Amino acid sequence: MQLFGCACILMLSIIVFYVLGKALCICCHWDFAAPEAVCVGFFFYFAAFQVIAEVLIFAKQPLHMLKNIWMVLLALLLLAAAAVLWKKYKSSPQQIKPSAVSGNGQAGSRSGLWVRLLTLLMAAAIFCECASAVLMQRNIGWDFAYYIGNMTTSVATDTMYLYDGSSGLLRSEMELRYALSSFYMNTAWISQLTGISALLLQKYVMGILCVLLSNAVAYSFAMEVFGKERGKAALLVTITIILTIFWDVYDTSAQFLMLRNYEAKAYCANVVLPMAVFVLYKIWKKGISDPAFGELFLVALSSVAVSMSSLVIVPALIGIMMLAHLAVERTWDMAVVWRTACCMMPNVCYLAVYLCYTQGWLVVEV
Q: N or C: which end of the chain has fewer CB within 10 A?
């Protein structure tokens, strides 16, 4: 029964991400297909969730307060998103149909059939990857026990990051290495609400979601590279999945995706960083545009909320790519510099807080 509940939560999560992402795309005038809209909704969800969660975590409030406040806010966000989608539908009742394949007559039919076959092949490959990465999970180490311990202890004690995930003992001070990110508390409040074990939620729901989001980013990236040719994009994603499954090398993004997809650092390696590179590629390819930088800012804003591993990696990636862009263009565009600085600012602020914690200047006593 709990596994069935996990399946329902997974499907509901994807729907929520799509609704939020699609509404945000309409409001910001972004033209995204469904896979990228789901990814945008995922980042928007955690950006909003982080704001509420961090205030309550630092105030040492109970977990049920986070659950109650976030459920109300999420309901309001979904109602607003639904209103935006309905308004868009009323103004444009004609639904956008998939682009026609090239060619006419028999050649066009063959081309369309080829695209559908490649899409089915990609779907089968994604299913096999989910089975390999989650249902055949075999990496259960200290990290796994600690993260699950943090969540289950939070649910049992109705607190957030006040008890040690390994020993279950009350901490003397809050460990900001984990408390600056609300990723695991998202699973904790769902566990408290539904009664489903945090272990199952994290392993199956978040594990499968990591695989699906990583492939959504890869597909969106491929569509951008191949000029919206769905057949080529599906083929590339399929090849990527095959390489991922058989590329059994430790400390690679593939290894994290296959064995540790339930951890925040797996999201950093397989969702956050690829998404950042994808948006930077669009900026480089299409020129400096506000919509692309808005998407990049959203990814950077929610990167720490998804994974503390993004703390330094994401701003470093953005800075390096933008310096390379300026070097190739051989011009010093202050608009690029300022927009890049704005995108890096959320992580810089988090880094400043974390450095104050490591130096002992910021201590949150329990």
A: N
Q: Which two tokens stand for residue 107?
A: 């050649």
Return the closest-CA partner of residue 314 out of 162, 181, 222. 181
Look up residue 333 and give its amino acid. D
Give the whole-angstrom CA distance, residue 2 versus residue 110: 44
Question: Which residue type is seen at 3?
Answer: L
Q: Tens digit of pLDDT per residue, the chain (366 long)? A: 788 999 999 999 999 999 999 999 999 888 888 899 999 999 999 999 999 999 999 999 999 999 999 999 999 999 999 999 998 888 875 544 444 343 444 445 667 888 889 999 999 999 988 888 776 666 566 777 888 889 999 999 999 999 988 888 899 889 998 999 999 999 999 999 999 999 899 989 999 999 999 999 999 999 999 988 999 999 999 999 988 887 766 667 777 777 788 889 889 999 999 999 999 998 888 766 667 888 999 999 999 999 999 999 999 999 998 888 778 877 777 778 888 899 999 999 999 999 999 998 988 888
If phi > 0 it is left, if psi is from -120 to 50 it is alpha, else beta; for residue 164 that is: beta
HEC readout, the chain: CHHHHHHHHHHHHHHHHHHHHHHHHHHCCCCCCHHHHHHHHHHHHHHHHHHHHHHHHHCCCCHHHHHHHHHHHHHHHHHHHHHHHHHHHHHCCCCCCCCCCCCCHHHHHHHHHHHHHHHHHHHHHHHHHHHHHHHCCCCCCHHHHHHHHHHHHHHHHCCCCCECCCCCCECCECCHHHHCCCHHHHHHHHHHHHCCCHHHHHHHHHHHHHHHHHHHHHHHHHHHHCCCCHHHHHHHHHHHHHHHHHCCCCCCHHHHHHHCCCCHHHHHHHHHHHHHHHHHHHHHHHCCCHHHHHHHHHHHHHHHHHCCCHHHHHHHHHHHHHHHHHHHHCCCCHHHHHHHHHHHHHHHHHHHHHHHHHCCCCCCEC
Give residue 100's identity as a one-letter amino acid code.
A
